[in-house]
Amino acid sequence: MTVPTYPVETTTPPPASTAARAQLLHGGSVEQYRRTIADGVDRVARRVATVDRPGTGITPAELAPLVDRVDLDRPLGDAGAALDELENVYLRDAVWFHHPRYLAHLNCPVAIPALLGEAVLTAVNSSLDTWDQSAGATLIERRLIDWTAERIGLGPRADGVFTSGGSQSNLQALLLAREEACADAIGPAARAELLPRLRVITSAAGHFSVQKSAKLLGLAPDAVIAVATDTRRRISAAAVREEIVRCRQAGLVVMAVVGTAGTTDFGSIDPLTELAGICAAAGVWLHVDAAYGCGLLVSPTRRHLLDGIERADSVTVDFHKSFFQPVSSSALLVRDRGTLRHVTYHADYLNPARMVEQRIPNQVDKSLQTTRRFDALKLWLTLRVMGPDALGGLFDEVVDRAADAWQLVSEDPRFEVVTRSELSTVVFRYLPTGPGRELADAANLHAREALAASGLAVVAGTRVDGRHFLKFTLLNPATTVDDVGYVLDLIATHAGRYVHDHVEADLTCHVG
Which residues cross the membrane (predicted)? Predict the structure, then answer.
């Protein structure tokens, strides 16, 4: 094949343009690219190797002036100087999720093959909206969607798309459910009459993105019905059945039931098989938010905890939680690929309808996003290097560790612990005795703030039945029971001192 030749531009660009072009990645700048990226990697590696605590405890008031003083209109001129500055405004005070005493949110240490994928995908900079911007990247993402759907068991018509995270996946799932519920409402008037009557049933322990999605979708302010949970903090299947009946008697239409496989606070898994049976009998869309619990899909020992998920109409998975991937790496899966038509629009300049007839795969036909990163590559390389069994084994480790932590807390008289998680959270609180008992809420809030200020550990907080509790979320296999015990002692020290000081102050006030 004859390769066409093109005239070479001979006009010398002005010096400023030459300097700017040198900062773009191209064939002539690859050595600078190698050096710059290597310098950045070295600096992060040194930090990771030497940090002795998950954070520094810096406050917004302390850090904001450093950032505000940066004059973005006066460039530093080279990447080394910019990295020096970055040490002061970011790296020095970053929160390090790989540290074993980071026990707060659903943030995981990341797999090295995924970091390799991150480096590759950002340099190539594929956009996953159309085939002519991504080529093989489109096929890799589609293969991973098929693999995930197979793991879930959704069947031969399943499909899906990568998203920015669980909240976006939940939004898109409820959008599809809304459109399916409105399928028989022909014309604007019929649709306008139906929309205020649509309802979504979810758990009182479910994710806030369900309520947020309902608002974004233009549903009624009271569209989301949060039903009670049982003693294990799982949604009550009986309550769901009763709500569906009640809604129909009231002339309301249940467009979706949202079950959760791994609630954020309690790590509880709703009775998915029961929910699937109820939804099938009632003709209601079942969405399962498995953003947290999706790691069970590769667990060698706990896959059965997701039994029933294969009957869902849509499923949210967050690989950046329990698959040890960097943010973002998430996906929405659907049982019937035909439902994805509700987010399909054809534009002549991007994805004209004729491309469907030509069998050209354009991922924008399935996505709420247009321009979209090739985040699937991180998971692809992780699976190709480590394999799913290794990832599942790591997730099993953190679940085992959480069980040990729950046992440790439950046997410690200084603390009160809530239900045992099926995944890797522990919800508990310091419980003062004697006259300081009424200070429990304030003491736990203080302990969390004092712990964060010290930088020695990071824990989360929540409310349970109106009271303030603390929460461990374990996603790091390097966290040991000794780490948990150390953090418990720190919490007890801070909370105990708070109670002591306030009781003493109260006694002094009364004596005076």
Answer: none
Q: Which residues pair with 261 in a beta bridge?
A: 269
SS3 labels along 162-185: EECCHHHHHHHHHHHHHHHHCCCC
Q: How confident is the model at residue 506 (pLDDT cuts 50, 70, 90)?
A: low
268 with 464: CB under 8 angstroms? Answer: no
DSSP string covering 211-259: HHHHHHTT--TT-EEEE-B-TTS-B-HHHHHHHHHHHHHTT-EEEEEEE
Token pair for 471: 């929460």
Name the phi and psi angles at 474, rounded to 5: -95, 120
Q: Which residues contact 472 (CB under 8 A, 6 or more apart)?
A: 103, 402, 405, 425, 426, 428, 459, 460, 484, 487
Reading phi first (left if > 0) and then psi (alpha if -120 to 50, else beta), residue 155 is in left
**For the chain, what percentages of helix, strand and coil (3-state, to nearest 5) are there?**
50, 15, 35
- Max distance between CA atoms of the chain, in angstroms, equals 99
**H helix and E strand count, the chain:** 17, 12
Contact at 8 Å (CB) between 149 and 139? no
Nearest to 158 by CA among 312, 353, 369: 312
Distance CA 427, CA 463 (A): 10
- Using CA atoms, how far apart are residues 104 and 119, in angstroms rounded to an integer? 27
Tell me: the pLDDT tens digits for 192-229? 999 999 999 999 999 999 999 999 999 999 999 999 99
Q: What's the CA angle centered on 439, arms 491 and 56, to 5 degrees?
A: 30
How large is the angle between the packed helices 481-511 and 440-454, nearest 10 degrees? Answer: 120
pLDDT tens, 74-125? Answer: 999 999 999 999 999 999 999 999 999 999 999 999 999 999 999 999 999 9
Say how many C-beta atoms besides its own lie within 10 A of residue 433's C-beta: 9
260: tokens are: 């959760």
